[in-house]
Amino acid sequence: MSKIRQASPDRDTAAEPAIRTLAEDYPAGFLIPAHAHRRDQLVHATRGVMTVTAAGSTWVVPPRRGVWIPAGVEHDIATSGMVEMRTLYLRRGLARHLGEACVVVHVSALLEELILEACRIGDLESDDRRERHLIDVIVDQVRIIKMVPLQLPDPRDARALKVAHAILAYPEPGSLEDLCRYAGASRRTVERLFRAEVGMGLGRWRQQARLMHGMRLLAQGAKVSHAALEAGYATPSAFIAMFRKALGVTPTECFPPNPRSS
User: Fold this and answer.
1) Distance of alpha carbon 191 from alpha carbon 198, whole angstroms
2) What is d(CA 262, CA 258) in angstroms, rounded to the nearest whole number?
3) Taking the CA atoms of the chain, what radius of gyration do you get in angstroms?
4) Interatomic CA distance for residues 177 and 191, integer angstroms
5) How many CA atoms lie within 13 A of 154 on its CB side?
6) Which regions in the chain score pLDDT beneath 50?
7) In angstroms, rounded to a whole number, what is the distance separating the alpha carbons of residues 107 and 105?
8) pLDDT, tens only, 202-227
9) Top-level CATH class of 154-256?
10) Following DSSP, what letter does each residue of 196-222 receive, concatenated?
11) So what's the pLDDT on residue 195?
């Protein structure tokens, strides 16, 4: 693991900076164990894919996206591919509109450059004129940030959870009716449980799980065709269409091929 900067975002100081930063590189397959912070956190990776798990839900965070983690929320982070993580720790109250739950957000090119500049500087102090201006611009960008539907919440009912785990283990095409029978319930019952407990139907949940699995494979260097088939899509074009619908870009635009590997 190549360490860029090790900060202590939760250390106690006499004068609390408005924003603290952390820049760290992690190898593929690395797990940051469950932990929580006193500050709100915007985690962004300029390279690689992060999988964040917290409060019974999973968020997959590809490039040009970030995850908002409110203060006090225990979470762990797993890496797919080499991850270059750049994180802002905001004093509570600077981004109230993002709420008290984790959410994946779009990181614009401008916000990414602001995050990188903040990480180069370190802690941002309100009493420094240049840093105060940078804080103001970052907060302005965070206030207009767009949320991205890349959440995969777990159902609570044991039967529905058994179906969810089966989908995650075997994302390839298969009969949802058979999966439900395997879990000891009818398709209708499981559909009702998913809608009541996770806010989406079983088919959409499986669709989201497949998309997230495909993202992780792409981050690990898989070709689009391989990622599509491994994630359970009938054709690469179906995967590309779903990827573009969710993220607004194609897989190759999000994960450009490495010229050294071609």
Assistant:
1) 10
2) 7
3) 20
4) 10
5) 15
6) 1-7, 12, 14, 259-262
7) 6
8) 999 999 999 999 999 998 889 999 99
9) mainly alpha
10) HHHSS-HHHHHHHHHHHHHHHHHHTT-
11) 94
Burial class (CB in 10 A: 0-12, 13-18, 19+), 34: exposed
Which pLDDT does position 239 carry in this prediction? 94
Q: How many residues does the chain have?
A: 262
Structural domain boundaries in the chain: 19-148, 154-256
Question: What are the angstrom distances between the C-alpha of 162 and each of 46, 179, 205, 210, 212?
Answer: 35, 9, 13, 17, 19
Which of 128, 138, 133 shows the shortest CA–CA distance to 21?
138
Give the pair of three-digit tokens for residue 258: 């490495």
CATH fold label, 19-148? Jelly Rolls (2.60.120)
The rounded distance, in Å, linking the Cα atoms of 257 and 262 is: 8
**DSSP secondary-structure letter at 155?**
P
